[in-house]
Amino acid sequence: MKRRLLTFGVMIASAITVGFAQEQDKVVVLSQRIGAAVDLEERDRFQLFPAIQNFSSAIFYLETDGTFRIVIRRQGNKRDTVISVPGHTLRLYVERIEHWEELQQGRYALGSSLPRIIFEDGTPIDSTLFAAPHSLPAKRREDRDAIPLSPNTYGLTRPMFPTIHLYVSLGVMWGDFSGVSTLTGSDQNFFVPLSFFLHIPFTEDPDISFIGGFGGALGGVSDGDLLAFSALLVYRPTIVISNIRPLIGFGVGHSSFEYFDGVVVDAEQSYPMIVLGSRIIENYMDVFFVLPFARTMEATFEGQRYTIRPAGPGLMLLWSF
Known about the structure:
- This protein is α+β, with helices and mostly antiparallel strands.
- The protein has helices at residues 2-24, 40-46, 87-98, 100-104, 181-184, and strands at 27-29, 37-39, 55-62, 68-74, 81-85, 118-119, 165-174, 190-204, 207-220, 225-236, 245-261, 263-281, 285-292, 297-301, 304-308, 314-320.
- It has an 8-stranded antiparallel barrel.
- A hairpin with a 2-residue loop joins β8 and β9 (207-220).
C-alpha cells in the first residue's frame, strides 16, 4: 500500500513538473516573417543583437513572471547567451521586424502600434504584457546585450556598434580671411573640412544625444592650417516630414588658424554654435547646417590693422559607422 501511494505521488509530482516546464518553455513567434527562431540571415537583415559574436540563432520564451527569455545559440560550440527582457522591449523587436522597410524610409516610429504576438502553437499572448512601462509598470531585468548608456530599443543599431558609433564628415565651410590676404597672398575664404565625430545617445524618448569631435581643413583658408573642435547636444523630434527627420543641436566650438611663410599669423577663438539638420538615410547619413556665433578678431602689425574670423557657417555631410 505504501509503495503504491509513493508511486502515485511520484507520478503526480512528475506531471506537475512536466506541465510547468512545458508552459514556461513555450516558444514565442515574433513574426511570421521569421518563424519560431531568428537565424543568422534574419539577424543581419533586421540588425538584431549586433554585439553577439558567432551568432547562430535566437529563440524566445515567455517566463512565469511575464518577462521574456531570449536564448542565443552561438557557432563553434560557444556557450549560449541568455537575455531576459520585459514585454515592452520584445514588442519593439517585433515592430522592428514587421515595419523594417518603413523604418528605413523614416515612415514609421517604433512604439506606435501594438502587434499581435503568438506562441508557436498559434495561441495569442496577452497584449497587456507588451504595454509601455509608463502605462503598465513591469519588472525590468538588465539587458546584457546593450551598452549601459541607454536601452537599445528604438532602432539605434548600426552596422558594428549597438549604441555608440562614429561619424565621418566632409563639407564646405566659410570663414573670413580677407583681412590677412595681404600677408598670406591668398583671398580664399572657404575650405573643405574632414571631421571625425563620436555619437553617444543619452535618452531615446525624447531622442537626445551627444556629438563631439575634431577636424581639419583639406584646402582653402588662405593657404594656412585650420583645426576645429566641437561638442553638441542634439535633439531629434519624432516627427517625420516627407521622409525627412529633422534635428537641432546646441554646443560650443574652438577653431585655430596658423600661417607660416615669411610672416606668422596665429589666431584662435572659442564660440557657441547651433546646428540644424536632418536624417537623409536612416541609420547611415545625416546633413548638418552649422552656424557658429564667432566674432571677428583684430590685430595691429607694423601700423596696419588686420582682421580674421576662422569660424563661419557651413554644410556638412556625415556618414555613420
